[in-house]
Amino acid sequence: MKSLYLRIYLTVVAVLLAFALIGGWLAHRQIEREREQAEQAQDERLQAMADLLERALPPADAPAFEQAHALRRWSLQLRMPLALESATGERLASTPRFERRQELGEGSPPKVLTLSDGRRLLVLRPWRPRAGLPPVFGPLFERAHVLGLLFVLLFIGVALGAYPVVRRLTRRLETLKRGVERFGAGELQHRVAVDGKDEVAALAQSFNQSAERVSALVRAHQSLVANASHELRSPLARLKMALALRDETGPNPRLDQEVARNLAELDGLIEELLMSARLEASAPQRQRVDLLGLAAEECAQAGLALESELPEAAVQGEERLLRRALRNLLENAKRYGGSEQDLELCRRGTWLDVRVRDRGPGVPPELTERIFEPFFRLPGHAEVAGGVGLGLSLVRQIALAHQGSVRCEPRPGGGSVFVLSLPAA
């Protein structure tokens, strides 16, 4: 995790450095462009000034004092240090400011403008002693220095500010990593703290939700294994006892029936366990199933009445699983439902309801959800009543796998109604 922290922090710093370098390069290019434009504009102004002075100055053959007088007058008006040389390079006139700047060596070399008659006009750009640069260029270079300093300060400030942000982020990731390791080591009740509302907090919340589901599944499987072991042990013990008695007493039809019944119970238990495991491992196959036809077949086999006014009733699902759900509901009604049981198939909007009704002792309201848990039996329903407590649990699994539901309702006049609801095709 430390390497992740360093990678994140160094990435942030590298991005900031790249931003500073690119920003500095762009600023430098802009300043250079402005400098070139300023130089070009000044050269154009100086050339225009030279054209003006050429027309205003006395001709080249005029006396030197006239040329000097005119040059000084125009220098004062233009506020520019000027000097005038002949075509041969002889100094004809210069202003005091030009001579003083030349003696002190201040500023840049003079700009030489050649007039049409061969004379040369020397111009010194205005100069500020503080900056040592012409006023046109001084602000540009000062701006470059200021921008460079600002980039450096910005880089340092953001790099320092990014450290606690990155450290806090990676610390939360480290906490999440330790929580995952503890959960993986077997501490199924361990959860991580959800701090904040960002992606890391969402990840921690998702981990807690997943851990809760995994813990519930592990507890359910542990309970299933424990209950399955108990349920398998009971018929096996009865088989062992029946076989031992048969060895002692010889062939006995009653013992043979007991052996056959216990074998059938074992077979049913194993089949329901395998079907439950398959439902958890994979989704059912989808095809159009005639639910009305299935209900008619199962009711005929169970010897129960079917009530339905629907011309047809079809759902999308796996026929084998839906048949098993109907069979389990009907067997449950025959086992505990007293003397009156039937099945009603009706439509409720976009749903098809299979209602298996009985006149049995009913289910207490506080237990209408628990009866769908694996291996749960109502108080007073002993093993001798038949069944192993997986039938209704398997019905719920099949219903959920088909985006449906199952519930138990009290029946007016006594008894129960088990309602299997499935989306109509």
Automatic annotation (TrEMBL):
Q: What class of enzyme is it?
A: transferase
- Where is the major localization of this protein? membrane
Q: Which UniProt keywords apply?
A: ATP-binding, Cell membrane, Kinase, Membrane, Nucleotide-binding, Phosphoprotein, Transferase, Transmembrane, Transmembrane helix
Instruction: Please give the PROSITE patterns that the UniProt record associates with this protein.
Output: HAMP, HIS_KIN
GO MF terms on file? ATP binding; phosphorelay sensor kinase activity
The EC number(s) attached to this protein equal: 2.7.13.3
Provide the reaction this enzyme catalyses.
ATP + protein L-histidine = ADP + protein N-phospho-L-histidine
Task: Report the residue ranges that make up the Histidine kinase domain in this protein.
Answer: 227-425
Record's Gene3D superfamilies?
A: 1.10.287.130, 6.10.340.10, Histidine kinase-like ATPase, C-terminal domain
Bilayer topology term: Multi-pass membrane protein
Query: What GO cellular component term, any one, is given?
Result: plasma membrane
The record places domain HAMP at 167-219
Q: Where in the cell is it found?
A: Cell membrane
InterPro entries from the UniProt entry: 2C_sensor_his_kinase, HAMP_dom, HATPase_C_sf, HATPase_dom, His_kinase_dom, HisK_dim/P_dom, HisK_dim/P_sf, Sig_transdc_His_kin-like_C
- Superkingdom field: Bacteria
List membrane-spanning regions: 6-27, 146-166
* Official protein name in the record: histidine kinase
Give the species: Inhella proteolytica
Q: Could you read off the lineage of the organism from its UniProt record?
A: Bacteria, Pseudomonadati, Pseudomonadota, Betaproteobacteria, Burkholderiales
